[in-house]
């Protein structure tokens, strides 16, 4: 989709701004080269890196409430961020390693930190991230902030096994009832033998099952080709939108005042309809939305927190929750909370 002249100039300004920031960052690095060796070594030791194992420590809510998610809980949440841009999310039972781990998510992330600001994108969605110190970060989820502590105590081979388990769990043909046991160095030689025997048998069974399903599909008329093509086109449009200059400019604009102007709303709706056509079709089929309701849905789809939604819809913060709850009832004919609507919109 071609952008108009206004957004071409916006993209040029964004490119200029990024270039200016990178040059400034380079100047700082070159300036630091003149520091004494001891100071340079100290600076290197204090350099922050997003790559590593991060353990969820607590949740901090907008009300000021803090919830310790480690004490008294059997499982602990971990995020493994690799240098190839892949992240994994699991729950681990550290106390009893015989209990199965719980795979939750595997996707791509992007992280960039400069003296001016920090950009963190996971699964195509920009998140506000706070670098509290070199071993503590906070990721804003809207209603609360997740506080992670860096934990480098897990052995590298164990982390690799955990990540492989998550990859297996998210393969299209995996068995959803499979339990993945967290690897431990106490595994005996006999267990390795059983693994080497069992794996080929399982793979053979899976291979035969896949062949059987494929042959069955070949004998049936293909009714999914059109839908598959549509899904791929929608996916391509979404990725093009997320990586566009307009999207980066929009993200920054949505976290600023004043509220979006009518022409900005019009352009945003046009861009969203192009990037998420199925999203708008499904909304239209559900019910007739008012202008405010549609705008709330659009900003929710973009992962914008309620505080920013309130600014750009010219509503009180408390009313945004009420709008989402009423809209859920309007769509489904049953009571539901604001979070229920958010989950439906994000997955739509």
Describe this structure in words.
The chain is an alpha+beta fold. It has 2 domains: 52-181, Lipocalin (Beta Barrel); 234-347, no CATH class. Helices cover 51% and strands 19% of the residues. Helix 11 (317-332) crosses helix 12 (338-347). The radius of gyration is 24 Å and the shape is globular. The chain starts with a helix and ends with a helix.
Strand content: 15-25%
- Named CATH architecture of the largest domain: Beta Barrel
The topology string of helices and strands comes to HHEEEEEEEEEEHEHHHHHHHHH
**SS class:** alpha+beta
* Helix count, DSSP H or I runs of 4 or more residues: 12
Low-confidence spans: pLDDT under 50, at least 5 residues? 1-16, 38-44, 184-190, 217-228
Question: Could you describe the largest sheet, including whether it forms a barrel?
Answer: 11 strands, antiparallel
The first-to-last residue Cα distance is 22 Å
Please estimate the helix content.
Answer: 40-55%
**Which descriptor suits the 3D outline?**
globular
- Any idea what the radius of gyration is? 24 Å
| CATH topology tier name of the largest domain | Lipocalin
Average of pLDDT: 76
Number of domains: 2
CATH class of the largest domain: Mainly Beta
Give the beta-strand count: 11
List keywords for this structure.
348 residues, alpha+beta, Lipocalin, 2 domains, eleven-stranded antiparallel β-sheet, 12 helices, 51% helix, 19% strand, globular
